[in-house]
Amino acid sequence: MRKIDLCLSSEGAEVILATSSDEEHPPENMIDGNPETFWTTTGMFPQEFIVCFHKPVEIERLIIHSHFVRTLRIEKGMSEEPVDFEQWIEKDLVHTEGQLQNEEITAHDGRATYLRFIITSAFDHFASVYSISAEGRAVSSLS
Prior knowledge:
Elements: E1 4-5, E2 14-18, E3 39-40, E4 47-67, E5 69-77, E6 86-92, E7 101-106, E8 111-122, E9 128-138
């Protein structure tokens, strides 16, 4: 089976929760495939969002394009509902003055139906996420 970007809304992914929302920069922008759009936090940290795949997937690589994110924790959930998340990845990102942060993460044990992204700290009062990509494939079951 071919590898695809599982986080695209065109592939069925959906942002089902975000702790902040701005009318001009909603959370759906992170998965719309447009590199010009983004989601922005509206202050205080931590901030989080949950991506639902609506099917079991195996993630092999994550790519996050962001701005001002200092520490990012990613948790995965394998149940039918967005509960019982387990910590999966935690990264300190490098501040890139005047350009997007481009973080590529090789994923191990990447089976999930949900991913929860938690921005625990930032380099500024606000942070933004331009895109989340999850390279991988749908799987027939999580067992």
